[in-house]
Specification:
By secondary structure, this protein is of the alpha+beta class. The protein has 17 helices and 40 strands. It starts with a strand and ends with a strand.
């Protein structure tokens, strides 16, 4: 077994690999860029080597710099994680030439499967069902439009060396094919150093289901069941689960056997994933093979009990798999929610900044529930614009799917993140969505269920009443605290009111509260009564209450007129007023939002890639105005209506903050 390995990656996956290495008694080496000097993976490793400036193309994907770090530290093996150099054949060859083990598949398998065009041909030769498409290289946008029209819209433009949703675009017409081709090429070049693009038919209403494979260097290859990854946005997975709620045993077996056949065709070893598109009739088509560890590998680990990172290390050290296919079962159900630094209220655009608060739920494991959080950040750390926006992967396991969803709901309720925009509200809303709970999902779920973007969850009236009761009880505690601090009188409770109007979610609830030593009874005007019990005190940002014996967890911050509550995807401003003040408040004028209709505002922190118009230009609805890059993704900004450019305030190469004015219209 190795004595020291280097992790050629960063963030949560670097931390994840370090944990398995430590379990095996192996020393670890971290590498880091300028932006990651104080990162968690650097602190966790036994050694750390600085490899250059913040941009990945000047640090993490520069092979020579990684090789220098290997030589400096005497590492015997390198784990590439995912992304960066994980599927780079030249990197694997450089390690091999230096006599350093690559904790991954042979370079030949990376070459064959890492190139999506070659992999399609090999899959067909191995008897694997494939999606129709053009497997040749595409010279320019004109050729891309011609090929797309021949295949028939909609089509998917994909980076040949791509992964993680980078360099991927869906085109429904010639214009989108032309624009998507250039954006895909740019993203592919920036993320992978390879701008080759190919096109395939986009299967409508598809499910994205993948098979985990694991092989050793002695010819043993296993399939470790499937993962459902259909909840996606911008072709990037958001929620995954194992097993799939859609597959039956026969389809699962057929997909597994085809995945193994493909792996065997390229002499595969280590962990890898064969991805399929599955239609409503359970017909499945090969999508691609990822010759690396997948982001969503924890859900497979949770239902099989197999540490995939440990197995990768053992295989790289020449060990034989001790498992057989008969040993692989399905124990319970696991769900993974990817916590991203992105603002769901702004179309999931990236967000950067300092984590002023980062309090994940406590990890735990029992026979009935597991909570696991794979992360690479900490409170006080920064989310950089240079890398993928993932903050953490929150996973739950339970004996069945319903229980796993309940566990995820509660874990998300407890997860506190402040200082950046994040997608916890959206993840919570999905967990409560009837369609998700039923398992009736496709890769179009987000587009279909949130066509106008995510604006927060609408909670049922019964839930709003429970929150109103909770707010009344917390307000009473705050009033008592103020009475004690001010010393208004000894018997402070006589100074605390009992009748209030709680306004939240478009409702005004008149309540009366009566308290005893164990809790409070909150009665509504319609006679409904809730018993509230909690040890919440003013200043606590998480309220863990019992409403009629049932648990309710909400994120809480106090304001001059009440509270801000966040619960199950809803972000609520709550006003707590006396009946008299409530009546007077109804006569107050509402503050008007400023008019920004004549401004193009930067929707997220990013770098201006290009400006497509000039001062004086007449623009039409939908016309491209500029392109902004953030976290390795290009975002094309378009005109929302017809107008004339009056002023341009930004230029290519300039870094902008959220709501910076890019241009003005007459």
């Amino acid at each position: 077994m190795f004595k020291k390995i280097l992790i050629a990656n960063r963030g949560e996956i670097a931390c994840r690999v370090i944990k398995s290495a430590q379990k095996l008694g192996i020393k670890t080496v971290a590498v880091y860029s300028d932006a990651d000097r104080h990162a968690l993976h650097v602190k966790m490793a036994d050694e750390a080597v600085h490899i250059g400036p913040s941009p990945a193309n000047q640090s993490y994907i520069v092979i020579d710099k990684i090789m220098d770090a290997v030589r400096q530290t005497g590492a015997e093996a390198v784990h590439p994680g995912y992304g960066f150099l994980s599927e780079n054949m030249k990197f694997a060859e450089a390690l091999e030439a230096a006599g350093v083990a690559f904790i991954g598949p042979p370079s030949g398998a990376i070459e064959a499967m890492g190139d999506k065009i070659t992999s399609k041909k090999l899959a067909a030769e191995a008897g694997v069902s494939t999606v129709p498409g053009h497997m040749g290289l595409i010279a320019d946008a004109d050729e891309a439009v011609k090929i797309a029209a021949e295949i028939g819209y909609p089509v998917m433009l994909k980076a040949s060396a791509g992964g993680g949703g980078k360099g991927m675009r869906i085109a429904w017409n010639d214009q989108e094919a032309r624009e998507g081709f250039q954006s895909s090429k740019n993203e592919a070049a920036a993320s992978f150093g390879d701008d080759r693009i190919f096109i395939e038919k986009f299967v409508t209403q598809p499910r994205h289901i993948e098979i985990q494979v694991l092989g050793d260097t002695h010819g043993n290859i296993l399939w470790l069941n499937e993962r459902e990854c259909s909840i996606q946005r911008r072709n990037q997975k958001v929620i995954e689960e194992a097993p799939s709620p859609f597959l039956d045993a026969a389809t699962r077996k057929a997909m597994g056997e085809q995945a193994v056949a493909l792996a065997r065709a390229v002499n595969y070893c280590s962990a890898g994933t064969v991805e399929f598109i599955v239609d409503g009739a359970r017909n499945f088509y090969f999508l691609e093979m990822n010759t690396r560890l997948q982001v969503e590998h924890p859900v497979t680990e949770l239902i099989t009990g197999i540490d995939l990172v440990e197995q990768m290390i053992r295989v790289a050290a020449g060990e034989t798999l001790t498992l057989t296919q008969d040993d692989i079962g399905i124990n319970g159900w696991a769900i993974e929610s990817r916590l991203y630094a992105e603002d769901p209220y702004r179309g999931f655009l990236p967000s950067i900044g300092r984590l002023t608060r980062y309090r994940p739920p406590a990890e735990m494991a029992s026979e009935k529930r597991v909570v696991r959080n794979d992360t690479g950040v900490f409170e006080g750390g920064e989310i950089s614009m240079f890398y993928d926006p993932m903050v953490a992967k929150l996973c739950t396991w339970a004996p069945d799917r319903t229980a796993a969803i309940v566990a995820m709901r509660e874990a998300l309720d407890e997860f506190e993140v402040e200082g950046i925009g994040h997608n916890i509200p959206f993840l919570s809303a999905v967990m409560d969505h009837e369609r998700f709970m039923s398992g009736n999902i496709t890769t179009a779920f987000i587009e279909e269920e949130y066509p106008d973007g995510f604006e927060g969850a609408t909670l049922p009236d019964a839930t709003l009443k429970r929150l109103a009761a909770a707010t009344a009880a917390m307000h009473r505690v705050s009033e008592i605290r103020q009475a004690r601090v001010s010393g208004r009188m000894n018997n402070h409770e006589r100074r605390v009111g009992t009748d209030w109007v709680i306004s939240l979610g478009g409702h005004d609830f008149s309540v009366s509260i009566r308290a005893d030593h164990d809790g409070s009874d909150v009665e509504f005007a319609d006679g409904v009564r809730h018993r509230v019990m909690s040890d919440w005190t003013p200043g606590q940002s998480l309220a863990d209450l019992r409403i009629d014996g049932a648990r309710l967890v909400a994120k809480v911050s106090q304001s001059a007129t009440g509270f801000r509550l966040r619960h199950r995807g809803a972000d609520l401003v709550v006003h707590v007023r006396t009946p008299r003040i409530f009546e007077l408040s109804r006569h107050m004028l509402e503050k008007q939002a400023p008019d920004t209709s004549r401004l193009l505002l930067c929707p997220m922190p990013g770098l201006v890639v290009s400006i497509a118009v000039a001062v004086g230009d007449e623009v039409q609805d939908g016309q491209v105005l500029c392109t902004v890059e953030a976290m390795k993704m290009e975002n094309v900004l378009r005109a929302e209506k017809k107008g004339k450019i009056a002023k341009i305030n930004a230029k290519p190469g300039e870094s902008l903050a959220v709501d910076d004015v890019i241009m003005e219209f007459e």
